[in-house]
Amino acid sequence: MRSMETIDLVKVAVPILVSATIAKYTLKWWLRVGMELGFKGRDMNKPGEYYAVEGGGLWVILSSVFGLLCYVALDTYIDGVKGPIPLLSIITTLLLAGLIGYIDDSLGWKKGISPIARVLFTIPISLPLVAVKAGKTRVELPLVGVVDLGLLYSVLVVPVGIVGASNAFNMIAGYNGLEALQGLVLLSMISTLAFIKGIYEVIYVSLPVIASILIFYAWYNRYPAKVFPGNSFTYGLGAFYASLAVYWDMEKYAVLSFTLYFLELLLFLRGLYHGVYKENYARVLSDGTLLPPYNKSYSVTHLAMKAVRAIKGSCRELDVVYFIAGLQLAVCVSSVLIILFTYP
C-alpha cells in the first residue's frame, strides 16, 4: 500500500504535469495556426511593425482546467472524496471567465464588447459559486465586528468579488509578460499564505494553474512575446483568484493584495475626470525606449515609466514589466504580514 506521502506527491505532480504538457503543446499549435489564420495583433510597445498571436490565454485556461479536473479525479478515486462540488464550481467559474474573455478577444481590440457590456457580461461568471453557496457568510467589518451576512453574502458579496477581480486584473496589462508575471506572483503568494495557515488544498488547486502560466510565460509571452494573453487570460485568472479567496476565507488578503489594481482604478477615474479614456501603452521612440503617453499619469504603467526614467534615465518595456511585478510582490508580502499579525 502506498504511503500518504506518496499519495500526496501523486496528487501534486500529476495535475502539474497534465497542465504543463497541455499548455506547451496547445500553445505551440496555436502559435502556428493563429498566425496562419491572421489572429494576430500589433505589439504597441515596440518600434515598427511587430505582431504576435492573440488569444493565447484560452489555452492557459483550458490546460489549467484539465489539470484541475485531474486533481479532482485523484482526490475522488485515491482519497475517496465524494463531494468535489467546491472544486467543480471553481473550475466552471474559470471556464466561464475564459469564455467571456475569448469572445471579446475574437471580436477584436476596440471592436469587441463595450466597457460597460464587458462588466455586465462578467456577472454570470459568479453563478457557479452562488449556486453552491460558496464561502462563509460571517465576515468581519471595520468598526462593526463580525456580522453574519447570510444570503446577502452569496447573492451580493460573491458576485461583486468575482466581477471586480476579473475586471480589475484586466486593467494592468499590455506589456510583454506583465499579466503572466502578475498572475504568478499573486497565485504564489496566496499559496504561501495558505501554506503558513495550513490550508493545503489552496496549494493543490493553485499549482496546476501556476504550471500553465509558467509554460505560457517562459516559452510564449515573455519579451519579445510570440503570443498575447488576451482577456481570456485576465478574466480567467482574476475570477480564479477571487474564487480561491471566497472558498478558503481569504478575502481580506485578496483585497489587500489587489492594492495596485485599486490604484489603477483611481488613476483611470482621474483620466475620465480629465476627459481621457486612457491607454496603458507608451509612446515608443525609434530606439525602443518608452515615454508616458500623457503628461499626467492615468495608469500604474504610466507611473512605472516615470519612476524607471527617474532612476535609470530611460525606460524600456522590460523595465515596466519588472518594476510593476516587483511592486506587486512587495504588496503581496506586506499583505501576508498584515494578515499574519492582525489575524493570527
Strand content: 5-15%
Low-confidence stretches: none
Main beta-sheet annotation: 2 strands, antiparallel
Q: If helices are DSSP runs of H or I spanning 4 or more residues, what is the number of helices?
A: 13
Q: What's the gyration radius in Å? A: 20 Å
Give, in spatial order, the strands making up the sheet with the most strands: 1-2
Structural class: mainly alpha
What's the β-strand tally?
6
H and E string: HEEHHHHEEHHHHHHEEHH
Average pLDDT rating: 90
Give a written overview of the molecule.
This protein has helices spanning 4-36, 57-77, 85-107, 115-121, 127-131, 151-169, 178-197, 200-221, 230-247, 251-257, 259-273, 300-312, 317-342, and strands spanning 40-42, 51-53, 138-141, 145-148, 283-284, 290-291. It has 344 residues and is mainly α. It has one domain (4-251). A two-stranded antiparallel sheet has the order 1-2. A two-stranded antiparallel sheet has the order 3-4. Strand 1 (40-42) and strand 2 (51-53) form a beta hairpin. Helix 7 (178-197) runs parallel beside helix 9 (230-247) and helix 10 (251-257) runs antiparallel to helix 13 (317-342). The longest helix is centred in the N-terminal third of the chain and has 33 residues, at 4-36. The model has no long low-confidence stretch (mean pLDDT 90).
